[in-house]
Amino acid sequence: MSNLPNCPKCNSEYTYEDGSLLICPECAHEWTLESGLDHTESAKIVKDANGNVLNDGDTVTVIKDLKVKGSSSVLKIGTKVKNIRLVDGDHDIDCKIDGFGAMKLKSEFVKKV
C-alpha cells in the first residue's frame, strides 16, 4: 500500500506518481508533494474595487446600481451581499441576494465590508 496523499481537489485515494508530480486519475488534478500547488492552474487572486483581496464567505456591498439581466429590476448601490463564493469566469462572485435570489457578480462592482 502506498503512502501517497489523497487528491486535494476531489479527495480521491487513487493518486499516483509520475516523476515529481502526483496525479489524480479521477479529476486529472496535478500537484507536487513539496509545494502542494497545482501546476495546471494558477491560483487566481480576486480583488474588489478598492484592491482588497476577497475570500469565500466574505461580506461585500455593491458600489453602483446594476441592471439585472433578464429582468426590469435594478440592484441598488449599497446592497449588502453576505457569504460570497469565488468562482472562475468573467463573473467571479457567486452569491444569493435577498429579494433577488442567486446571482453572479463581477468583483469590480463590489467592495469588502
UniProtKB/TrEMBL annotation:
<dbReference type="Pfam" id="PF03831">
    <property type="entry name" value="YjdM"/>
</dbReference>
<dbReference type="InterPro" id="IPR013988">
    <property type="entry name" value="YjdM_C"/>
</dbReference>
<feature type="domain" description="Protein YjdM C-terminal">
    <location>
        <begin position="46"/>
        <end position="113"/>
    </location>
</feature>
<keyword id="KW-0378">Hydrolase</keyword>
<dbReference type="Pfam" id="PF08274">
    <property type="entry name" value="Zn_Ribbon_YjdM"/>
</dbReference>
<comment type="similarity">
    <text>Belongs to the YjdM family.</text>
</comment>
<feature type="domain" description="Protein YjdM N-terminal">
    <location>
        <begin position="4"/>
        <end position="32"/>
    </location>
</feature>
<dbReference type="InterPro" id="IPR004624">
    <property type="entry name" value="YjdM"/>
</dbReference>
<protein>
    <recommendedName>
        <fullName>Protein YjdM</fullName>
    </recommendedName>
</protein>
<dbReference type="GO" id="GO:0016787">
    <property type="term" value="F:hydrolase activity"/>
</dbReference>
<dbReference type="InterPro" id="IPR013987">
    <property type="entry name" value="YjdM_N"/>
</dbReference>
